[in-house]
Amino acid sequence: MIHHHPEKARLFVLDDERAHWHDKALWFVRVKRDRAAATVPEWEGLRTAAEGIKVHTLSRLAEYLEEFERKATANGIQVHWARDGEEHNRIVHGILEKRGVQRMVKSKSMLTEECHLNPYLEARGIEVVDTDLGERIVQLAGEPPSHIVMPAIHRKKEEIGELFHEKLGTPRGLSDPTLLTERARAHLREKFLKAEAGLTGVNFAIAETGGFVVVTNEGNADMGTTLPPVHIASMGIEKVIPRLADLGIFLRLLARSATGQPVSSYTTHFHSPLPGGELHLVIVDNGRSEMLSEAHRRKALCCIRCGACLNTCPVYRRSGGYSYSYLIPGPIGSVLGPHRDLAGHASLPFASSLCGSCTDVCPVKVDLHHQLLALRQEAGEEKLLPFGKRMGMKMASFAMARPALFRAGGKFARWILRVAPGLARVGPGAVWLRGRELPEPPTETFADLYDREMATRPEVKS
Amino acid sequence: MAKVGLFIPCYVDQFFPRVGLATLRVLRGLGLEVEYPRDQTCCGQPMFNTGCSQEARPLAERFVRLFSGYEAVVAPSASCVAMVKLQYPGLVGDTPEVRALASRTFDLSEYLVDVVKVTRVDGEFRKKVGLHRSCHGIRELRESRSSERMDAPFDKTRQLVSQLRGIELVELERADECCGFGGTFAVTEEAVSCMMGRDRIADHVRAGAEVIAGYDMSCLMHLDGLARRDGTKLPIVHVAEMLEKARLSR
Q1: What is the ipTM of this complex?
Q2: pTM value?
Q3: Mean pLDDT over residues B11-18, rounded?
Q4: Taking a contact as any Cβ pair under 8 Å apart, which residues of chain B between 64 and 123 contact chain A?
Q5: Which residues contact B213 (CB under 8 A, 6 or more apart)?
């Protein structure tokens, strides 16, 4: 079944109260981001610098990755390379199997979602517990994340209370966020203590030092990597930056863009394994090299997964994460998903009014809405547009290339609208009219008025 | 050859001729020589934004032929101007002719402020106005600073209309959120489009606006269509109509 954004969005919008609640919750984060960004006088300069560093790094990615691997290996990190998600999962499972690990805790990583690591490991008898509170909520609910930074943003606190009652045994009707969080903490604490391995994502890998950085607000990555003896980190090839000095630019942008905080609660630098422990790093391609090879797609690899484009997107806020067919929703997902499989995500480039707010909010200046527009052309070339749309545009183009036909057609259409407005209720007119009125059709066009106006002397006023 | 080529988008010609007329009067009122090339139709944006570049291309090529001779091309529509300025080079070829045309094509507000260098507006508009700057004017043409950006604020349209006597520009909760028109988006994503529009109207109503002013009739047509359906009394007005009777000077 082809997943069609407009249909999912329509269902979301149908629940008006909930849709507005969702919109406001995310707009609140956007406003927080605005306030935080406004405190940094050099904000736009930081964005330009971050973009420059990312674009530069991508231009010689192989060199930086190899430099990173050398330094990391020298630090005692065991580096693995995975061509795709399957290979990544195999590597992770191999590490765990060799050590007889049966319980693993995991902090947030969109990459492992992309690789479908959890089901892979669970099918092989390994318990995987997501330890980020939002991730744990959606894991308990058996859902994918609906947002890349706030995975459970679509759930109201009452619904989380119900879920916790069912899964964690909290009293029925408990919906106080603090009490629910405390219960989750106690539940997760046990998991941390029993875990034999911890897996984290990677926010930034630094070629110069061979170290990497993980940013969280809950400290769950730290807890999950300091107790168990085995730490596995998974990163996409695009996460590397050249120097330690570059890191500050990204850290200043990341937390402010993501949640409006000046800095995340925990920014942890990993350089070497714990005494007596092991530190593995799996570097994953999974289609990224292909994206890198095409100039017009490359820019999307600059993304630092802050989620600001989701929070600002008027369509995401009003349609929710599950209306998108790709696991990353919102503008960046509507770019990344179709870059991987355009036919499978054909409605995503059109799930945007092209307002450009995503591009302006992006801390690394990914030209998101222009990429969406370019993807629409690709969809057109690959004949992925609905038949009606394509025919409509063909007919319109034919008429518009012939001024006489345009004028006659326009006159006829306006006449119909005046004498038989009901006839507008066919084709796209019917969809327009579902919630809106059409403009009143005037009897004269501008072309008619122009001739009369030009017959008069201009009234020069300046 | 006339100095200013008047670019009246197809739907403005057909549905909002008054806006075209107001634009013509504003430009002629400045003593400019204005000509409306009669064979113009559509710039191709609806096709292009739908992914039909093949269907958009012949229209863009016609446009280039019709408008290349003018010193400036001016339209009462930021969105259609953005199509010419930003998309034409990629669509019909990045030639010196196309690049020159792109650089000489302006939305009315930016033409008045940047080219004619209008600094004083002497006129009247006694209403509480909500200024709905369309996204393409803000984030493609940069006629005002977007709310996402943190550099120095500016707003070319506001600079003009705020001088009108009696005008009160209301402050919106979400200064520049999209109205949800978005071309064929309005039909393809009808549910979200209408919700966005209704939210935009509600913001204006809460702010006490008596009228929504803008520089793209497409957004205004969508908002007006929603307001009329819901029985909300919130008429629309184009910036050109607000400036039509004013005296503009450098």
Answers
A1: 0.97
A2: 0.96
A3: 97
A4: 87
A5: B129, B130, B131, B132, B161, B236, B237, B238, B239, B242
